[in-house]
Amino acid sequence: MKGNGDLQVSGATHDSRLVEPGCLFAALLGANVDGGAFARQAVEAGAAAILCGEELSVRVPQIVVPDPRGALGKAAAAAYGNPTGSLSLAGITGTNGKTTVTYILEAALAAAGARAGVMGTVEYRFGGRKWKADHTTPEAPVIQAVAREMADAGASHLVMEVSSHGLSLGRLGGCEFDVVAFTNLTQDHLDFHADMEEYAAAKMKLFTEVIADRPDARAVVNADDPFGRTIVGACPRPTLSISCDPGSSADIRPRGEPTYGIDGIRTMIETPAGPLELDSPMLGSHNLNNLLVALGVCFQLGVAPEAAAKGVSALRSVPGRLERVSCDLGFTVLVDYAHTPDALSRALSALRPLTKGRLMCVFGCGGDRDTKKRPLMGAAVGGGADVAVVTSDNPRTEDPGAIIDMILPGVESGPMVRVGTEALSSTAAVYTVEPDRSSAIALAIRSAGEGDTVLIAGKGHEDYQILGKAKIHFDDREHAAEAISRSREAGR
Fold it and tell me: Most buried residue, 79, 152, 188, 280, by most Cβ within 10 Å?
């Protein structure tokens, strides 16, 4: 520490543009920018102290540490009065399902009389207030500042999505987790992580390092996932395992085969507290997994078993997760965030037994992201759908056509053959290419017939598309609704 060790700060930020008088400015070394270059600007804006890796030429107290990013979490928690210490904090990690589990938990805790805030991919929210979600797991000062506001507004619980980025970059420092949970591990984010081993190691940190100094913390783990079983063996805290397999020895599992229908999931669940009935309007076996993870978290948080089971059954839908778009033309239209091979396979598998006609999928892959998953996503759709329309997702700075060219070998590894857009109306095992996403959605809906299901995958809740470096308004749900309206007007 250089300077006044008795100094108190009123907040913290790593962004010099957000500095307010009296706050701590963290000068972090980023991928493209050294935060130390903005220290003088931060001081001029009123920063009372600097957290940095080496002494800077500014005349305010400085906390000089070898790893400023690693220290930022605890510093931010201290600056905001340790807000997560006054909340029951649950963290959910995994490749798929995090958002759905947080929504289920929010509904379940509300049904049990608790007041839960949520921080995740879609938004950060509590009690009618919403904060923009720039990252699934934001930088530590944002976590602590939002948690402080939620606690001051009367929140009793905070449910967080915990990303591998957040774990790798130390954003969870200062968070006092009561329960941590794992959904699954499949390929994603290999543009950030060197390989799957590094990706898995990042997830493991939540169960070993982050809760290392939390002796009362507990865990919930999906034991159907191979890496989940590894976590069960490594986690030093009491752990509940969940499984969708009735024959499993997991702590929470179905009693007999669950019933999956167009109206949802029905099953009796074996739990440490005895059998409980689960009746949820959510669709598919992957959502049974999410429901059981949420149920396990409720148990670990001390929610009464009957209230927990009733609460997790209460949620009807999650934005952009198999979300229905109103359609009265004899077929079903759904929007889903599935943007990994596993998520696409799970969504299509969930819809297959519920589809009387053809299962159609509109999808693409994001640009400037993991290129290795593109043919795998193509294969997931080529083998799981009857009809595919390959299009753009968020191409960012890549050529949309080049991205599509990397997807097509996967699509063609199954039975699908390429056809023109005029051949989609009555055939199966075919695909076509339409780079314009709005036109692709319209094409699928125009081609759908009685009993068909149209899955529009990849963007889900997102209301934008990134073309080059520009972000334009684009909502799959809106474009689907417009296409349905046009088909209705055309006499469908």
Answer: 79
